[in-house]
Specification:
The chain contains five helices and four strands. The chain is α+β, with helices and mostly antiparallel strands and about 150 residues long. The strands form two sheets. The protein has a two-stranded antiparallel sheet. Strands 2-3 form a two-stranded antiparallel ribbon.
Amino acid sequence: MEIKIENQKLVPAINFLFGLSLKGQQSRHRTHFINLLRAKYEVFIEDEQDMRKEECNCDDDGKPITYKYQGQDMLDVKDLDHFKQAKEELYKEERVIDGGDNQVMLQTIKKILNDCDQELSGQDAEVYDYLLNQFEKAEAEAKKGGAAK
C-alpha cells in the first residue's frame, strides 16, 4: 500500500493527526507517519522556493524580488497566469508515502482513522475525510494490483 497526499494537504494532515489522543503503538505509528509527512513537506517547501525563483524576477543573489503593495509583500512575478498555474500544479502534486517497511504503520493509521469517534468540524472534518479517502484509494489500488499478478 502507498498513500498519496497533495502538497497542500500535508500541514493540515500533520496538524489533524497530531491533535488525536492516542496511546501505545497507535501513538508511535502516528508519530512515525507525521515524521514522514514532515519530510515530504520539507521537499515541498524546497520545490516551492525553486518554482518562485523560476517564475519571478530575481535579485543579484538569485532571490525573488518583492515589493510592497497596499502594505503587503508581493512577488515580482514574470507572468501572473503562468505563475498561478505553476503554483496550483505544485500544490496539487501528490507526495507518496510508500508502504515498504511501513505497511504495519499504514494499517495502524488506517485503523485510527476508521475508529475515530471524535466529533469533527471545519478543517478537521475535511482533512479526516481526505485522509480516509486516500487510504481507501490506496487499499483499492493494492487489491487491484494484487489481482493483476
